[in-house]
Design brief:
- The chain is α+β, with helices and mostly antiparallel strands and about 150 residues long.
- About 40% of the residues lie in helices and about 35% in strands.
- The protein has helices at about 5-30, 35-40, 60-70, 135-150, and strands at about 40-50, 55-60, 80-90, 90-100, 110-120, 125-130.
- The longest helix has 25 residues, at about 5-30.
- The termini are far apart.
């Protein structure tokens, strides 16, 4: 009979804890519970968004939260997130999700997203977000066009 090492058991526990923390973070973040979300982050955490749109690039978390707050301040409620898959290995958690919310002006944000979340010492160190950048650009450029025409 093969002996189970304590180390592999603790690694599995760490992986499960990371999965739970990643889902908790994204849920709190999309529901507007920023203080709860931030407690799960490393002090030097970064957020990267794919593509070449004006929102693409790497941000410090505080900077990213300010941008997102400004973009999503006029919604009819919190962003509704569904998690389709959560997979983890070593210090990474991979999540496929769908975010959906209606804005007060009738626009609908409906995006499928992949997050690759890296952990360091039990805290989220970085988030890489892959999403439909064309949808984001189209949705928020329309808002700016309406605001500048008013």
């Amino acid at each position: 009979m093969k002996k189970r090492s304590h180390r592999s058991g603790s690694r599995k526990l760490g992986i499960e804890q990371n999965k739970t923390a990643a889902v908790e973070f994204l849920t709190a973040f999309t529901e507007g519970r920023g203080r709860e979300a931030v407690r799960l982050l490393d002090d030097d955490a970064t957020w990267w968004i794919n593509g070449t749109m004006r929102f693409s690039g790497t941000y410090r978390i505080a900077q990213f939260l300010d941008i997102v707050h400004g973009l999503f301040e006029a919604t009819e409620g919190p962003v509704h997130t569904t998690f389709d898959a959560v997979v983890a290995e070593k210090n990474f958690v991979s999540i496929e999700a769908r975010d959906r919310v209606r804005f007060t002006d009738g626009r609908i944000y409906d995006n499928r997203i992949h997050y690759l979340i890296a952990f360091k010492s039990g805290k989220i160190a970085s988030i890489r977000e892959y999403l439909d950048t064309e949808h984001v650009a189209r949705l928020f450029d329309k808002r700016e066009e309406r605001n500048s025409a008013a």
